[in-house]
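quick q for whoever's on today - can somebody do inverse folding on this one?? i tried earlier but teh output was garbage lol. tokens:
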């Protein structure tokens, strides 16, 4: 998420970006290991930020389940280190819709952590909220970056190459297009409020299968190689919640902004996708338009 929105964040903020790994060419990231208190203190002293956007996590659900100690270090201890170094800075802690597993649109009080990832993200929230923090429970979709493909990037690439896909018809969510996040984050800072808020597209959740079909239809891509399946039949290593859709009214009311609908998110993604495919960098052999 950080790499996907870094450039657009500059429209609203003067940014210093930090990451644990060496930057790719053209990137100017500050090195930090958030699990090391000294490293975090040095970073904060050096940047003296007004706002800290805390995105770092062990976000791989299976990796969290396989190694809960590592998940705890990254999702909980690292947040504690940041909180203790932050001073007066506002902290935006990015949490996840994975903390839910209920029917319909979950409200902020409806948490139901069902795996180590969800549990450690909730713990991280609690620690962040002991400081001057807003915890945003979100899900987003994007094309992704060179380093990591996003959900929508994976879908469009698979549709185009006619790869067989199993799409879950019983996992519900309401992800927002990452392109909207910088503007949303600017509004959060402008109308600052501490607390926990759901952030997704405005409207009822859809299944992952329906999301994929709607995306393909908008781009005129074939879904002939897709089958709709149940997550229960997928024999995944770790339990995945089915009901992650979120009610976003609390956020909208608190920050005085209407979040975009799914249609608007898909339209915006499709515009960016077409522009991206037109770029010299990633010219593709067949033109889907
Ligand atoms: N992906 C989703 O669909 C999704 C949905 C809801 C919420 N979220 C939340 O959104 C946030 C971003 O997720 P993501 O998908 O972008 O995750 P990601 O691709 O795995 O990125 C996590 C980032 O954390 C950094 N990091 C890991 N260990 C670190 C350490 N010890 N010190 C400093 N940085 C460290 C990594 O830096 P390097 O690049 O240097 O390794 C990486 O940039 C997470 O908090 C996640 O829980 C994600």
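ok took a stab at it. sequence:
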């Amino acid at each position: 998420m950080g790499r996907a929105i870094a450039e657009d964040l500059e429209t609203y903020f003067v940014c210093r970006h930090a990451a644990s790994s060496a930057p790719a060419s053209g990137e100017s990231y500050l090195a930090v290991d958030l699990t090391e208190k000294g490293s975090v203190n040095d970073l904060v002293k050096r940047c003296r930020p007004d706002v800290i956007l805390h995105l770092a996590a062990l976000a791989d659900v299976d990796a969290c389940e396989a190694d809960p100690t590592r998940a705890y270090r990254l999702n909980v201890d690292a947040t504690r280190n940041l909180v203790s170094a932050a001073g007066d800075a506002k902290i935006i802690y990015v949490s996840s819709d994975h903390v839910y597993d209920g029917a319909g649109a979950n409200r902020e009080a409806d948490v139901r952590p069902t795996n180590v990832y969800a549990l450690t993200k909730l713990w991280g929230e609690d620690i962040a909220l002991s400081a001057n923090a807003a915890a945003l429970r979100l899900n987003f979709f994007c094309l992704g970056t060179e380093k990591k493909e996003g959900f929508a990037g994976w879908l469009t690439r698979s549709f185009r190459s006619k790869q067989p896909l199993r799409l879950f018809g019983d996992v519900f969510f309401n992800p927002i297009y990452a392109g909207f996040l910088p503007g949303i984050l600017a509004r959060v800072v402008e109308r600052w409020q501490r607390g926990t808020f759901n952030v997704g597209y405005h409207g009822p959740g859809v299944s992952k299968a329906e999301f994929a079909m709607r995306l393909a239809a908008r781009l005129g891509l074939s879904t002939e190689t897709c089958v709709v399946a149940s997550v229960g039949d997928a024999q995944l290593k770790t339990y995945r919640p089915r009901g992650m859709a979120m009610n976003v009214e609390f956020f909208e009311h608190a920050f005085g902004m209407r979040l975009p609908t799914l249609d608007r998110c898909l339209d915006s993604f499709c515009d960016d996708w077409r522009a991206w495919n037109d770029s010299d960098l990633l010219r593709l052999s067949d033109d889907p338009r």
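fwiw The longest helix spans residues 68-85. also Residues 1-2, 19-21, 32-35, 55-57, 59, 74, 78, 94, 96-97, 121, 138-139, 148 surround NAP (CB under 6 Å). so keep that in mind when u check it
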